[in-house]
Amino acid sequence: MPRDPNDKPDVDVVVIGGGVNGTGVARDAALRGLRVALFERNDLAFGASGNSSGMIHGGPRYLTYDPSVTESSCLDSGYIQSIAPHLLFRIPFLFPVGAGPVSHVALSLIDAFFEAYDRYQPLKRGKPHTRLSADDLRALEPGLRGDVIGGVSFDEWGIDGARLVAANAVDARRHGARVSNHTTVLRVLRREDTGAPYGVEVRDRLTGRAETVTARVIVNATGAWSQITTGLAGLPDKSAPVRGGKGIHIVYDRRLTNYAIVARTIDGRQIFLEPWQNMSVLGTTDDDYYGDLDDVCATEDEVRDLEQALAKVFPAIKGARAIGTYAGVRPSLFAWGKIEDKLSREHEVIDHAAHGAPGLVSMIGGKLASYRLFAEEATDEVARLVGRGDACATHRRPLPGGERVIDPFALADRIGCDAVAARRLVYRHGSDAELVAERVRRRPAERAVVCACEPVLEAEVRHVVEHELARTVADVARRTRLGLGACGGYGCALRCGQLVAGGQGLSPRAGRLSALQFLEAQAARRAPALGAVQARQEALGLASLRAEVGLGRSEEDEP
Predict the structure, then answer these.
(1) Cβ proximity of 187 and 232 under 8 Å
(2) DSSP-assigned letter for residue 128
(3) Above 50 in pLDDT, residue 523?
(4) C-beta separation of 451 from 458 below 8 A
């Protein structure tokens, strides 16, 4: 039966969207003492947050047309480093300048530009840039093209966006919030008299269970899906003006360089190859996107354009082994007439009272680097609408795992695992790695390695299923990087599926199906970066695996 809008609401705020902005608001609101429920249609970090370039960077290029974005990004980067120190790693950049008629003038201008950027570096604990000669560049990276005349170096901070989202969600739950992934919002309920939203109808996409949850305020934090979400409340598209920009990245099987190397595409856009965790990432594109937001994939043309552009500066990319691609859609603020990479990366909190829906708030735009600030501003608006709530503390309170430093080598000795496995475990979970270690102490068999590429222990898989809302093999991969290495998941997905199914009381067949769905999705992401011969071999491998586990194509096997 329909809920009476005059009944006492179940929560103070419903957050729609489980990306970094949505989980950031859920955490902030929960820390302020508000009752929170968050619903995510797919999985945490499924969209742009988990498919970014993996950096908390200041964005020096925004200095030319949006300097406030550079300042806020650098400021919030400093806060994120202090609350999640285990997740950050320094990425030094090289910006080479090739020979040409005005190369020396260009190098002087670039040098002057980064002098301006240096003013913001202290905010994010960055180092001042350095002007380099051609010999300096070749000594640092011998793989650069031979005709460089010089360049500059500067640094940024790398981060695992999916882990950042998971940490915010875990902390929100620890402070009383309800967080539900794979749960789609079917409708935003509104009062007939005032038009004010008072709740949502939701359905769990894995179990089919439906329910109504009422709230005093609803926050739309769905990024590129924002216009779809406001449509669920009957509002027009222009009420949440987002211009989605598709960005793709190519993943390589190892570190090809110890520096991020900047290059330019044929139309002058900036791209870079970066060393990122155990691999290398080349990106990114920026193109208007109008397709299915639940199925964003790279194309062969996009892959070829990126590799050709980088080869002009770093020829060794031609012989590197690509093991996959990933893609996301940036929810940039809408503007007509601008080319995509000139769109503002600023953010905006919209109160839809102006559209006849008081109590509905949308978060538009933003960057990973300034998510905490954006979430603070949105939660300030929620607290105003609710009429209560403590002051923001997210810049001071450590995220789970950020409370203290853990020695990975001591951890490896204590639980009897490989030192590399312990280091990766500590990177992902920080001090919460002790929770996984305690599992191994109680059940020594859980020190077994499920995924050798990353590596990932059985205890970690079980931990993210029990404590981090991992409900599928793909969910486990986002939280642990299981199956995202050179093996493509073929050596670990089926075992992971067994653990996922067992941890949720599901059938063995459900675990095999989850593994097969993950492998098929990974194969689709690899295809644009593979040649025809390797693609045919991969198709044969998948067909053999389906036959081995007794399942047809996963989409035909779903109940």
Answers:
(1) yes
(2) P
(3) yes
(4) no
What is the residue whose two structure tokens read 């996959």?
324
Q: pTM (2 decimals)?
A: 0.95
Q: CB–CB of 430/419 below 8 Å?
A: no
The CATH number linked to 323 is: 3.30.9.10
**Which is nearest to 514 in space by CA: 497, 498, 499?**
497
The verdict on 412 and 527 lying in the same domain is: yes
Q: Is residue 206 located within the same domain as residue 289?
A: no
514 in a structural domain: yes
What's the pLDDT at 556? 47
Residue 201 exposed, middle or buried by CB count within 10 Å (0-12, 13-18, 19+): middle
Give how many domains the chain has, as a whole number: 3
For the stretch 147-164, pLDDT in tens is: 899 999 999 999 999 999
pLDDT at 2: 60
Q: What residues make up the domain containing 180?
A: 11-48+162-241+345-386
Asked if residue 367 is part of any domain, the answer here is: yes
pLDDT digits (tens, 9 = 90+) for 91-149: 999 999 998 888 899 999 999 999 999 999 999 999 999 999 999 999 999 999 888 99
Q: Which tokens sit at 316? A: 């060794």
149 and 250 fall within a common domain: yes
Q: How far is residue 449 from each of residues 98, 407, 429, 471, 481, measured CA to CA in Å?
A: 46, 20, 17, 20, 13
For the stretch 444-465, pLDDT in tens is 999 999 999 999 999 999 999 9
Both 332 and 355 in one domain: the answer is no
Are residues 25 and 113 both part of a single domain?
A: no
**Which class for 8: exposed (0-12), middle (13-18), buried (19 or more C-beta within 10 A)?**
exposed
Query: CA 519, CA 523: separation in Å to the nearest integer?
Result: 6
